[in-house]
Amino acid sequence: MTSELENELERKGTPDPPTIGLEEEFFLADRETRATVGRAPDVVKRARQCLGDQAGFELYPTIVETRTRPVGTLAELRQQLQWLRAGLGRAAAEAGCRVVASGTEIIPVTGPQPIVDDPRYWQLADRYPQFVGGDRSIASCACHIHIHAPDREEAVELLNHLRPWLPTLQAIAANSPFRDGRDSGFASWRSLHFGQWPHVGPTPLLRDTAAYDSLLDALVESGMLFDRRHLYWYARLSERWPTLEIRLPDINADLDTVLFVACLARALVGVLLADVRRGAPAPGISDPLLRAAHWRAARDGVRGSGLDLFTGRLRPFPDLAVRLIDRVAPALEETGALHFVRHTWQRLHASGGGAEEQRAAYRRRGDLRDVVDLLTVAGGSGESEADAPSP
Fold first, then answer.
1. Helices H, strands E: what count in the chain?
2. Per the UniProt record, which residue ranges are transmembrane (predicted)?
C-alpha cells in the first residue's frame, strides 16, 4: 500500500492538517532462542550512530524506543518509521538480538528484571517498588501518537470529546494476547498489565485548562504521581511538546496497521476540533461505562463485540470501526488517506488484527518462537521477518 498511499496524497494534496509524530516501543529478543533479553544499552548505543537522539531507552533494558520527527503527511510518517525500524533492526542484529513489535513479551524474562541506569528510573523504582522491581515487572510496549495542538484550552476540550472513540482505536491496535508465554484470553493483555499503575486509565472530563492543571498538581502532591510527566491517562497533553498524546495503542509489527491507527487518530482530532470550535458539548459518558468499553476492547479486539458508548449496548466491533471511519471520512478525504484507511480496515477485519495473527502463528506448531519471528522488525526493510524459519 506504500505507493497507493503516497500517490493519492500527491494527487489530493494536504490542506495543512496538524503535524503528527509517533513514539514506538519494542522488546528485544535473543537472535537464536527468541527469549526476551536486556541488551538495550548496547543496541541503543549502536542505533544512535545512525539514528541519533531518535533512538532511546525505556525503564527496562529489554525495551528500546524510537521517536519520529513531526511530519505533515502520512507518506513522510511511513518513511520515518521505515528508516527508524531499519536502523534499530540493524543495531539489534549487531548485538545478537531481534527487535520485536508486541505489546507484551512473547517468551518472557525469568527472574527479577534490572532497570536502566538512569536517575529518573531509579527514582521511579524507589517510589513504586511494587511495580518496578521484583520478579514480575510491568514491562510492555506501546505506540504513542502525538498530534500538534498548540492551544491548550482547545486541547483539553479535545480530550473530553475523544473519550468515547478511544476504545475503538484500542481494539484496532490490540497486539498482545500472550501473558507469561500463555494465551491470556485478551487481544490486548498489555492494557490490563500496564494498567496496574494507579495513574493509568481514561482521561476524566475536565472543564478547562485550569481544571486540568489543578488536578495534575493535586495528584503529584498526593504522591500517586512522581511528577506531571508520569501521568499515564489514555490521552493527555504532553508536558514536553505542544501536542495531544494518545497513549493506549499496542505496538504493531505491521506498518500499515500503525499508519491506519495514526490516520484515524489525526482525522478524529480534526473533526472533533470543529465540534469544539462550534461549541458542541462533549458526550457525558460516565467513567464506569468508559472503563467497561476499554475492558471489552482489550478482551475482544477486532474479533468480537464492543460497547457502544452512545447507546450503552454491545455491538459487533466491525460496526463500531465502520462508524469511526465514517465519522472521520471528511478529514481523511481531505488528506487523501480515505482509500488507504478503507482498504486497510478490510484487511484487518479479515485477519483479526495483530492479536489473531499472533495466535495463528502459535497454532501452526505450538511454538512461541514462530510468534517472535512474525513480530521481528528486520534490519534491512523495516518489515517483519514472518518467513524466517525457527531453528
1. 15, 14
2. none
Residue carrying the nine cell digits 495528584: 219
Encode pLDDT of 86-111 as tens digits: 999 999 999 999 999 999 999 998 87
Record the cell numbers describing residue 31, joined without a space. 537472535
Length of the chain, in residues: 391
pTM of the shown model: 0.92
In this structure, the number of other CB atoms found within 10 A of the CB of residue 73 comes to: 20
Return the axis-axis angle of helices 255-277 and 338-351, rounded to nearest 10°.
120
Strands (E), 137-221: 143-148, 178-179, 182-183, 200-201
CA distance 295 to 292: 5
Helix axes 317-335, 255-277, angle to 10 degrees: 80
Q: Is residue 216 part of a domain?
A: yes
The answer to whether position 386 is within a domain reads no
Domain that holds residue 160: 2-375
Count of the separate structural domains present in the chain: 1
In a domain, 390, yes or no: no
Q: Is residue 389 part of a domain?
A: no
CA angle 352, 356, 358 (to 5 degrees): 140
CATH number, domain containing residue 358: 3.30.590.20
Among 82, 94, 88, 93, CA closest to 63: 88
Ramachandran area for residue 247 (φ above 0: left; ψ -120 to 50: alpha; else beta): alpha
Specify the pLDDT at position 136.
60
Give dist(CA 200, CA 49) in Å, integer. Answer: 34
Three-class secondary structure of residue 241 per DSSP: coil
| C-alpha distances out from residue 368 to 1, 20, 351, 361, 374, Å | 29, 34, 19, 8, 10
Residues 6 or more apart whose Cβ sits within 8 Å of residue 287: 202, 204
Nearest-5° Cα angle at 88, 108 to 238: 85
